[in-house]
Design brief:
It is a single chain. The C terminus is likely disordered. By secondary structure, the protein is α+β, with helices and mostly antiparallel strands. It starts with 21 loop residues before the first strand and ends in an 18-residue tail after the last strand. The longest helix is centred in the first third of the chain and has 21 residues. It has six helices and eight strands, in the order E-H-H-H-H-E-E-E-E-E-H-E-H-E. The strands form two sheets. It has a four-stranded antiparallel β-sheet with strand order 1-2-3-4. The chain has a four-stranded mixed β-sheet with strand order 7-6-5-8. The chain is elongated and about 75 Å long. Helix 1 crosses helix 4 and helix 2 runs antiparallel to helix 3. The protein folds into two domains: 58 residues; 121 residues, Roll (PH-domain like), CATH 2.30.29.
């Protein structure tokens, strides 16, 4: 049993008001979250470089035998395994305790194991949405909030767009099918807030953002 077992509706802090319905729900894929948010590949590469450097230094500078140098360098292996394992565990835990929800009125991000949180983001305060999708359809869906609305980075990390420190953007991270979620959001926002039609841009593109209709959002 977990603290989330007592939710009146999975992923939501309360029963939906009359007229509001759930259109889509999803969770981050743990391995993608581990590589993109917790950077286990970069950490693994760091420890691999450390091992190579220590081996090379021992052989070239101190004249040790290669086998002795390698065995000595391998002493960092338990530390490396512990660090990578910890990050992978945090990513898995975040994945298992996170539910992203899109209703016909808002986006809800429920996450947190030790301290559960539910962030409600009504369509009316969303200025733009940006999609970063890989060829397999996985990716992130980042939301830019209208001023003066703002969320602190520490309150939403790792569910935030990378490298946006000054103006954090709440982000649906590591979605297995990010394009589908973006299409649902675009259609829902167009129906609810027709004056402020969602703009969806590819985060990996350097070209200026262009408006996308719900029928073309999946191609972003």
């Amino acid at each position: 049993m977990s603290e989330h077992d007592f939710e009146p509706v999975r992923g939501l802090p309360g029963v939906l008001p009359e007229g509001e319905t759930v259109l889509w729900q999803g969770e981050p894929r743990w391995f993608d979250l581990a590589t993109q948010a917790f950077h286990i590949r970069a950490v693994s590469a760091y420890f691999a470089a450390m091992l190579i450097w220590r081996t090379t230094e021992a052989v070239v500078v101190h004249g040790q035998a290669a086998s002795t140098a390698i065995m000595s360098a391998l002493s960092v292996t338990p530390l490396a395994a512990a660090a990578v394992g910890l990050l992978a565990g945090l990513a898995w835990l975040n994945s298992k305790t996170t539910v992203y929800t899109i209703t016909n009125k808002r986006v809800v991000m429920r996450f947190g194991a030790a301290v559960p949180k539910a962030i409600n983001i009504p369509f009316g305060i969303i200025e733009t949405a940006a999609l970063k999708a890989a060829p397999n359809g996985a990716g992130d869906l980042a939301l830019t909030l209208k001023a003066p609305n703002r969320l602190a980075l520490l309150h939403i990390w790792p569910h935030a767009r990378p490298w946006r420190m000054a103006a954090p953007q709440p982000t649906l991270r590591a979605l297995p099918n990010a394009s589908a979620a973006a299409a649902v959001l675009a259609n829902a926002m167009q129906a609810e807030v027709p004056i402020a039609l969602t703009r969806l841009a590819d985060l990996s593109s350097t070209a200026p953002s262009r408006g996308l209709t719900p029928s073309t959002v999946a191609l972003a």
